[in-house]
Write a structure and sequence with these properties.
139 residues, 79% helix, single chain, 6 helices, mainly alpha
Length: 139
Amino acid sequence: FVRQGGWLEALEAYEEALRGLHFVAPNADLQSRRDVLYIGCLSNCAFCSLSLEEYASAVTYCDRVLAADENNIKALFRRAAALGEMREFERAFADLDAAERLEPDSTELARLRAKVQKQQKKEQKRERNLYKRLFSSSS
């Protein structure tokens, strides 16, 4: 699904898989494998949601991944990307900081940081122009 761009179909398939993974495993080995699959499905749901521009859903999926694995670099990256699109820059930069502590030499993280900084500057410019128009029309 994902390779063909069928993001919605892929998301539905991963959500179905998640529903099938709600069980208590009979032993530690099976529980560990279940956890890996569960985190993978959640991470893929976040990716699909990002691709569908469903940013709040992507954040929610990433929150669930990070609740299980606070150092999951993909979840930090994807949540930062979604938060940037949602104009929640402080939170996006906090995730980027955490991810860069885990992978300080990542060019992907550096590119995402540059993108979020650009988004922030664009938003600040938009806000400045809005305030200029607001105050110039009131005088």
